[in-house]
Amino acid sequence: MEKIWEQIVNWLTANASEIADDILSGVTQEEITELEKYMQVKFPEDFKQSYLIHNGQQGYVDPLMGEWELLSLEHIKSEWDVMKKLYDEGEFADSVLQLKFNVLCL
Q1: C-alpha atoms less than 13 angstroms from C-alpha of 74 in its C-beta half-sphere
Q2: Rounded to two decimals, what is the model's pTM?
C-alpha cells in the first residue's frame, strides 16, 4: 500500500499539486478501530492500510478522482450519521422495495 500511495502522490505532485497538498496524513490504528466500533463494521485490510498512510482529503480543492473526494475518517463518520438517520427514519424504504421490484422484473 505504501508503494501505491507513493505512486499516487508522485503523480499528483507532478500533475495536480493542489490535490497532492490537500491529502491528509494517516490516522492511527486506534482511530480506525474506534470508527469500526462506532459503525459496527469491519473495514477491509487494504482500507485500513491506506488510511494509516493517508486520511483522505481536507476537501479544499478538487476531488481526488473525478467527482469523488477521498473522505477522511471524520467525514466518513459524518456521512454515516446522516445516512443512518435517514435509514432509521424509513427514508429508503421505498427505494429498497423499488430495487427488489426491478430485480424481480428482470
Answers
A1: 8
A2: 0.81
C-alpha dist (Å) from residue 104 to 55, 93, 94: 40, 17, 15
Residue type, 61: V
Under 8 Å between Cβ of 85 and 41: no
Beta bridge partners of 92: none
DSSP, collapsed to helix, strand or coil, labels residue 106 as coil
Angstrom distance (rounded) from CA 30 to CA 33: 5
Per-residue pLDDT tens for 34-86? 999 999 999 999 999 999 999 999 887 776 777 778 999 999 999 999 988 98
DSSP string, 25-90: EP--HHHHHHHHHHHT----HHHHHHHHHEEEE-SSSS-SBTTB----HHHHHHHHHHHHHHHHTT
Torsion of CA 8, 4, 66, 35, to 10 degrees: -120
Nearest 5°: the CA angle 83, 32, 11 is 90
